Amino acid sequence: MDRFREKTCIVTGGARGIGAAIATRLGMEGCTVAIFDIDEQAGQYRQRELEKNGIKSVFYKVDVASEEMVKQAVEDLYGKHGRIDILVNNAGIGFSGKSIEEQTLEEWRRIIDTNLTGTWLCTKHVVRYMKKTGGVIINIASTRAFQSEPNTEPYSASKGGIVALSHALAVSLAKYHIRVISISPGWVDTSQWQVPPRQPQLTPLDHEWHPAGRVGKPEDIAALVAFLASDDAQWITGTNITIDGGVTTKMFYPDLDQIQRLLATLLQDEETAQTLTKLAEKLHTDKDILREIRNKYLSTS
User: Fold this and answer.
1) I need a labelling partner for 261 at 20 to 30 A (CA). Which of 12, 100, 188, 209 fits?
2) Is the CA virtual torsion 130, 135, 140, 145 positive or negative?
3) 60 is an active site residue
4) pLDDT by residue (tens digit) across 17-51?
């Protein structure tokens, strides 16, 4: 399939993980791929991998939070290829997991600058050229924009900002025939797209939690990006698409039946799960049993 033949794309954070899978998918469909990444060694590795697959590619060492680096890379790419058709703003960093009282202003700024400001900066400098031909901008957000675990404030705020920025840009850039969409992935295991690749460390319970039956893969996100960047998606702009195996639609009320099913999946043993569930029910009313178990089996003396 050559949906993107003679087109040029930028994938930020394209050296590893989801970005690497996106760069590979777009390249396999004919796109000339420019990887923007702060990790020079990983970026060069990914460029070699792309070229092994017959994909035209170029690597730029770019910190997306630096306007000067973004500006220079975009200008150089356009000067050499004469067009920029697709921008995938994927570059992002995670969070420390510290409580709000322990989080520093430096951490907050670093995450916001990379994840949100970087998306804005890359878009700002690409639009200068993309508006000449039209194109597509796809911003990688996260389901953390809509639901959270404790101590993720900087990351969640950055991803929520990407969703809002995306629909604002879609309206502003429509007159240039530029579509803008955000994607919010759920749990995606990127082990095999790291540098070097690693084996996934997932349990049956990790997969079972997803209505779709498994944890996500970078290829899942790349397939959606390829569709949205194509002419098949001409009527899609200004929206966010959640891709998470159905997790955000799943209601969960913990009860003993649910616990037994989870234990059975985790242990791969229905009989043991049933025994442990009955024991848990018994412990709720008889604390003496709990003390006996602790003294007999869990004592460190």
Assistant:
1) 188
2) positive
3) no
4) 999 999 999 999 999 999 999 999 999 999 999 99
- Residue 106 confidence (pLDDT): 97
Tokens representing residue 189 in the block: 């295991």
Helical residues (DSSP H) of the chain, grouped into ranges: 17-28, 40-52, 67-81, 105-112, 118-130, 153-173, 204-208, 218-229, 256-267, 270-285, 287-293
Residue ranges and CATH numbers for the domains of the chain are: 8-249 (3.40.50.720), 256-298 (no CATH)
The dihedral sign for the CA sequence 147, 149, 117, 220? negative
How far is 180 from 167, CA to CA, in rounded Å?
7
Q: What pLDDT, on the 0 to 100 scale, is given for residue 240?
A: 98
Q: Residue 99 has which token pair?
A: 């409580």
CB atoms inside a 10 Å sphere around CB 275: 13
Task: Quote the CA–CA distance of 263 and 175 in Å, as a whole number.
Answer: 54
Which member of 45, 60, 155, 253 is catalytic?
155
